[in-house]
Every structure is written in structure tokens, then in C-alpha cells.
Amino acid sequence: MNTAMNKERIDGYAQALLAVARAEGDLDTVRSQLGDVARAVEGSDELRSVLSNNLLPAATRAQIVDDLLGGKAANTVKALVGLVVSTGRGGDLSEIVESFASAAAASAGKQLAVVRSAVALSHEQKSRLASALSASTGTPVELENIVDPEVIGGAITTIGDTVIDGSLRTRLNQMRDAL
Amino acid sequence: MNTVATTVSLIAAGNGYQIAHDVREVVWGSIAFFVVFGLVMWKGWPAITQAAARRTARIETELAEARSRREAAEAALSASTSELPDLSAEAERIRGEAATTAARLKADLIAKAEAEADGVRERGKSDVANRKRQARADLHAEIAEATRRAAEDMVRADLDGAAQSDLIESYINQVSRMS
Questions:
Q1: How far is B139 from chain A (nearest CA, A)?
Q2: Are B144 and A125 in contact (CB < 8 Å)?
Q3: Which of A83, A90, A153, B51 could disulfide-link A52, Cβ–Cβ 3.0 to 4.6 Å?
């Protein structure tokens, strides 16, 4: 029940962010920068802890976001992240951004595919991988590439509930399990 | 006065002291005695004989009752004596049962103690075996993890840009084959 309510809440925030991004007319930039912010927060325990600390006044949390993003992000992105954090949902930021990206892709009639790789994919590789995924799923795919050194090599694609894992990390883990 | 004179004269004669009897006193004394005796015999004797008869009857009754009680006691004694062999047999039977029960309890207790001892021994063996198995599994897991880390270090050292690109290409081809 709580999980369902939480999912509903996350989707609600994602839809709100999507509406604002559309209204501001810069959906691609907002989506890209929101993804960067979410990954930065996810990668720092300290930052995640501060932004999800509801004992801090909302204004303080919003000020921290403003200081962190400074001139590095669009005003819309700063406002949206500040909104999420000041309403006490900083701990859900990554999931909200992920839901936002999925909703943005769906609004364009596409399905979001998140590709994690150790190095950034080239534009040509992205295009070919998106085509392969579209052919595989039968739905146009919008690809989001996240650089994750933990992958070591190869890539892991998450599309909907499906995970296509071709990473060296997983192969090494399989080797360890086989031992 | 004559009596006194007679007495004095007798003393003077050296015959010792002697009270002389008056004949009238003797006569009247005898008459009184016989009157009293007659009255006693007339009125007291029947009462005495009746009392004696009643006492005799009471004693005889008591003797009869005592005899009856003695006979009853002798009969009871006789009956008890005749039952003694049965009681002895009952006592012997009870002793036998008690001995059998004690022997059975002893055997049960010994069997139970032996079973518990066997259980403790088996559990001990099982615990030792489990600990050995767990230690072996932990050791294997540590070796496998160390091997994985060593392999990861080697792979990372060998992974240059070209190798990463080859892995991505291989991954894209793998996804393309899925469609």
C-alpha cells in the first residue's frame, strides 16, 4: 500500500515537472540537466542525506540547491529541483526524475531506454542501439545514456521492466559465482 | 453401793481388777440384742439377699456379655487369621508389580538417557559438519571474490578506448540479434 502510494506520488511529481518543462519550452535541456542532478545526488551520500533531511527548514534546503547548481543549470531546473527538495521529497529525487524521463518519452510516443555504460556512447552508437531496441520492442525508443564506471565495460539497458545486461561487471560476477 | 463394796473387797483380797456384772443389765442387754437382731433379720435380711441376688444376676449378665464378646472376638480373630494368607498373596502381588514397574521405569530412563546422549552426539557432529561446510563456503566465497577483483583489475588495465568501443559494438550487435 505504501509502495503504491509512493509510486503514485512520484508519478504525480514527475507529471508536474513535465508540465512545467513543457510550459517553459525546453524539455530536452530540462530532462538532460535533471538527469545530471539526479545522478550527482545519487552518487553522493552526503548530498542525498542533506537534501532529504526534513529537519532542515525548506528554505535552507532550497538555498543549498540554488548554491549547488548556481550557474550550471537552467533556472527551470533549479526551480524544479528546489520544489522537490523544499517539499520534503529530496529522497525521491532520482525516482521522480526517472519517472519524469519516462513520462517525457511516452508523451512523444516513445519508450525510454536507460543505457548504462563505462564510457559515453557515440552519437552513431546511440542511434544504432536505439534502432535495435526499437526493432526488438516494436516501439520507438528514446535512449538516455548514463556513464557508470561500475559497469567496467559493455552496457546495461533498462527499458520498461526489461534489463538487457551485456556488462563486464555482470560477467565477472558470474565468473565469481561459478567459482 | 454393794457392787462398789464388793469390788473394793475383791481388790483388797488381791484378786486383780474385775468389773462385776449386774444380772439385770445382762438380761436387758440380751433382750435388746435379740430385739435388734430380730429386727435386722426381719427387715434387713431380705433386702440383703435381694441385693445379693441382683448383684449375682448382674454379674452373671456381665459374664454372659463378656463371654459373648469374647466369642465374637475369637470369631473375628479366626476370620482375620483365615484371611492372612490372602493378604500375604496381595502384598506379594503388589511387591511384584512395584518391582516390575521400577524395572520398566529404569529401563525407560536408561533408554531415554541413551537416546538423548545419541541426539547430543549427533547434533554435535552435525554442528561440526555445518561449521566446516560454512567455513569452506566462506573461504570459497572469499577466494572467488578475490579472484573477481583480480580479474577486474586486469580487465580495467587492459580496457582502453578501442576495447571499450569494441565491447559496445558487441553489445549493440547482441541487441540487434534479439529483434
A1: 11
A2: no
A3: A90
